[in-house]
Design a protein that fits this description.
The protein is mainly alpha-helical. The chain is built from 2 helices and no strands.
Length: 78
């Protein structure tokens, strides 16, 4: 029984050690690739946003608001 327990503990330590080493290497590799990509293809400067055009108010906007409100209430009811 003692031999089986020590082999199980040994397997657990090696398994957890392997996963830890692999994940550590993965973190470094991801960071390295990120730095390489940032140098090769830098991000473009953001363009200033254009102001959104305001749509003219429709003649039946009150009716539209009522219909939308009823739809939201119906949706929340279920």
């Amino acid at each position: 029984m003692d031999n089986l327990m020590s082999e199980g503990l040994n397997l657990m330590v090696f398994g957890m050690g392997f996963v830890f080493v692999f994940l550590t290497l993965l973190v470094f590799a991801t960071g390295f690739m990120s730095k390489v990509i940032a140098k090769v293809a830098p991000e473009a400067a953001p363009q200033p946003a254009k102001p959104a055009a305001v749509a003219p108010a429709a003649s039946g906007s009150d009716e539209l608001v009522a219909v939308m409100t009823a739809a939201v209430h119906q949706y929340r009811k279920h």
